[in-house]
Sequence to fold (129 residues):
Amino acid sequence: MSQVINAVGRRKSAVARVYLKQGNGAIKINNRTIEEYFPLEILQYVVRQPFGVTSTEGTYDITINLTGGGIKGQAEAARLGISRCLIEANEELRGALKKAGFLTRDSRVVERKKPGRPGARKRFQFSKR
Fold:
C-alpha cells in the first residue's frame, strides 16, 4: 500500500482533511508536529486514540489539514478522519473502531442566537413592575 488514502472528519465547525500512507508513525498537522499543534497531552491522546484501539502505532504516516472550530473540536475531527482512513486501509479494523465509537460523527453544534434574546435560549430578566 504505497498510495495515499484520504478522508474527512468533522466536529462542531472544525473540518479535518486526513491523508494516510505507509510509514513510521509521524503525524503532521498543518505542516507542524502534533506536539507543536496540540501542546496539551489530552488532545494528542485524542488524536492518537484510533491507533491505540487498533494496535497500529508506528505503521502509518498521517498528514492533516485542520480548519475552523476550537482545539477540542479540531482534535475530535482529526480522530474521526484518522478512523475513516484506517478502515479504508484495512477493513478488518472496523469492528474495533466502531465499538470504541470513533466512526460516529458527533453532530452536536452550537444553537443559533435568536432575535430579541441575549442568547439562543436565555431571556432578559422579567420585571413585573
Q: What stands out?
A: The helical segments are 34-37, 41-54, 71-89, 94-100. Residues 71-89 form the longest helix (19 residues). The domain at 5-100 is CATH 3.30.230.10 (Ribosomal Protein S5; domain 2).
